[in-house]
Write a structure and sequence with these properties.
The protein is α+β, with helices and mostly antiparallel strands. Helix content is 44%, strand content 21%. It has twelve helices and twelve strands.
């Protein structure tokens, strides 16, 4: 095998490979001989088909299989020989093959992984949220838990936010009916998430037996493509209005939350501990997100177009699957690769940076770190030992906790070099932020 490499651009390479035809022809002949010993054709006993007919029938397929295998083998050898780190998939084109040629030649064009230089990270700024759980935060959480256990009783007044209303409704767009409960009632709590807020607002003040008519404008990015960007006319009949009756914060309430002796003080202490654990997780997630964004901003690296294309396709496929799971008709949604390219490029860049950081600074998770991550995860289960044993029963299952521990090593490494400041944050502000 002979292989030469040309540099087309910073990342693109052209590899020309010539491999001798004699071993290829010998392998083709060997395989056809094996086929001839068992081949079946009409008019011939098995294994008695003339060799010429076997070649006519199976020759092209066997030749293609042998050459493909040799191309794959020699490409791998040539890449190793020239110490090339191939990014993405190569484009392989065979050269015209002359009759009785001594060599089979092909040209492989591909990109290589770029060199990643991390450099100085002292300019990366990280704001670490800082707060302590106060009794007022516990009070808010207790209120939420009470509302979750509310009992609704008929209200002789107009509906208010937080009330349970039972409704019948129909809607239309441009005179065409979109929804109709057809006399069936639908219960809902005003102010709960999952609907456009304006729908609930239009029902505030309505009493049982009252009908409300109103228009509702759906945003352009609404998850239901049939409604996105359109305005629907609603007619809603309020059948019943019920007000929430919250449980008292007493021993019975505490027992319902798992405090066996009904001690309210103990219940509040457990809630506070739970909040502190959740806050610690959210602070950790907020810092990690800033570290990753800081790395992307601080490190310049040329991205292999092939990797961005692959990542774009992966994201687009994930988006399609997500829409299908939500019942969206994909024929009505125009997803274009351009919608995902920016995020795909960011993902590829971050991945390249993290790989280099881990390699250059030996930040791979140690066995004790992996075990610590598993132990922490197992705490939330009734039988932690069983969870731990499940992970260690299959080495593949350790990949996820290992990746998490490695990621934590990266975050800590960056924090030691970045500019980190503590930012006083309110409980509500931190808890309202979406978690990655």
């Amino acid at each position: 095998m002979q292989a030469t490499v040309e540099t087309i651009s910073n990342l693109e390479r052209r590899l020309t490979v010539a491999m001798p035809m004699q071993p290829i022809e010998e392998e083709i002949g060997k395989r056809l001989g094996n086929i001839a010993r068992t081949a079946k054709m009409a008019g011939f006993r098995p294994g008695k088909v003339p060799y010429k007919m076997v070649v006519q029938q199976y020759g092209p397929q066997v030749r293609q299989e042998v050459i493909s295998g040799k191309v794959e083998e020699t490409f791998s050898d040539a890449v190793h020989q020239h110490a090339l780190k191939v990014a993405g998939y190569p484009s392989i084109e065979p050269k015209p093959l002359a009759e009785n040629a001594d060599n089979y030649e092909y040209v492989a064009t591909f990109e290589i992984f770029p060199e990643v230089k991390i450099g100085d990270l002292s300019g990366v700024e990280i704001e670490r949220p800082k707060l302590n759980v106060a009794e007022a935060d516990v009070d808010k959480t207790v209120d939420v838990l009470r509302k979750q256990r509310a009992v609704f009783e008929p209200a002789g007044r107009g509906a208010e936010m937080g009330d349970s209303v039972t409704i019948e409704f129909s809607s239309e767009i441009d005179g065409q009916q979109v929804e109709n409960t057809a006399g069936q009632t639908v219960p809902l709590v005003l102010g709960e998430q999952g609907r456009l807020p304006d729908f609930d607002t239009n029902l505030v003040g309505a009493k049982a037996g009252e009908t409300r008519k109103f228009d509702l404008a759906f945003p352009a990015d609404y998850h239901n493509a049939n409604l996105a960007g359109k305005t629907a006319s609603y007619e809603v009949k309020v059948v019943a209005v019920a007000a929430p009756k919250l449980p008292e914060v007493d021993a019975g309430f505490a027992r319902e939350l798992g405090v066996e002796d009904g001690d309210v003080a103990k219940m509040r202490a457990e809630i506070k501990e739970s909040l502190e654990q959740e806050i610690a997780k959210r602070i950790k997630a907020a810092v990690k997100a800033q570290v990753m964004s800081g790395l992307v901003a601080a490190v310049d690296v040329e991205l292999p177009r092939s990797l961005v294309t692959i990542e774009t396709g992966r994201q687009m496929e994930a988006a399609q699957q997500g829409l299908q799971q939500r019942g969206v008709d994909l024929s009505r949604v125009n997803l274009e690769p351009s919608m995902f390219e920016e995020q795909a490029a960011r993902n590829v860049k971050l991945r390249l940076i993290l790989v280099e950081l881990v390699r250059a600074n030996e930040l791979q998770a140690k066995p004790e770190q992996i075990r610590a991550a598993i132990d922490e995860h197992a705490k939330s289960f009734e039988q932690p030992d069983e969870v731990v044993n499940w992970y260690y029963a299959d080495a593949q299952r350790l990949n996820e906790p290992a990746a998490m521990a490695t990621e934590e090593n990266v975050v800590n490494w960056v924090l030691e070099r970045a500019k980190v400041t503590d930012k006083k944050t309110s409980f509500d502000e931190l808890m309202s932020k979406e978690q990655a």
